C-alpha cells in the first residue's frame, strides 16, 4: 500500500519552492544552517510536468515530519528529471554532497512513475536529509566503515520516520550471508582507498549494494544492543561506535 508522510502544519510560510527551467549546480559551504529550505525543480523540457505538484507536496511533507527531529534550517534541494542519475530499476535517486545541498533525480520515463512516486520519493528525501544532518556533525566519512554506517543510518532513518519498507539496496543478500561479506570487508574497514564501485555498486564480483546492506545490518545490530536509540538520535555518533567485532 502506498504511504505518504502525514501532514502537520503548512510549510507555505517557511518553505521556499522554486521551479527552474535551467540547469542547476548548487554548492553550499559548511556554514550555520540559517534560513528555510528551498526546493528547485529542474525540468527544462517539462518531462515531469504532470508530477510537479506531487513532487513538491511529497518533499514538503517529508521535511515537515523530519522537522520534529532535526533543526533543518537552510537546505537547497534540487529535483531534476534524469534517467541516468536515478537508481536503475527504481526510478528515483539522490545525493547529498554536504550539509546544505540535496540532489534528487527522477526518471521521467520510469514505467508507472505516477504509481510509485509517493512510495519512493519520500524515503529517498529522508535518506538524503539524514546525510545532510550527518555532514553537519562528524561528516559522511571517507573510510569503508564510515561510508557503510552513514548509509545504514540514513536508511534506518527513512524507515523510522515514514514507516517505509526496507529498500532493496539494504537487503541485497540473505541474512545468513552477512558474516561472509563482513569478513571480506574487515581488512578494508579503515581504508580510504577502498573500491566504492565494488562495495556499493557490485563491480568486482560482490553482489550489487553489498556495502549498503552491511551498513544497514551493522546499524541494526547496534540499535539492538542499545535499545531506544533511533537513527535520528545517532546522527552524530562516530562510525567507530558501530564497528563490528
Give a short summary of the structure.
By secondary structure, the protein is of the alpha/beta class. Helix content is 36%, strand content 11%.
Run of helices and strands: EEHEEEHHHHH
Query: Based on DSSP secondary structure assignment, what is the total number of beta strands?
Result: 5
Helix content range of the residues, please?
Answer: 25-40%
C-alpha Rg, in Å?
A: 18 Å
* Multimerization status: single chain
Q: Helix count, per DSSP? A: 6
Structure characterization notes:
With 245 residues, the chain is an alpha/beta fold. The protein is built from 6 helices and 5 strands; from the N terminus they run ββαβββααααα. It has helices at 52-66, 113-135, 144-162, 178-185, 196-201, 210-225; strands spanning 16-20, 37-42, 75-81, 92-95, 101-106. It has a 5-stranded mixed sheet, covered by helices on one side. Strand 2, helix 1 and strand 3 form a beta-alpha-beta unit. It is globular. 42% of the residues are buried.
Task: Offer a few descriptive terms.
five-stranded mixed beta sheet; globular; 5 strands; 245 residues
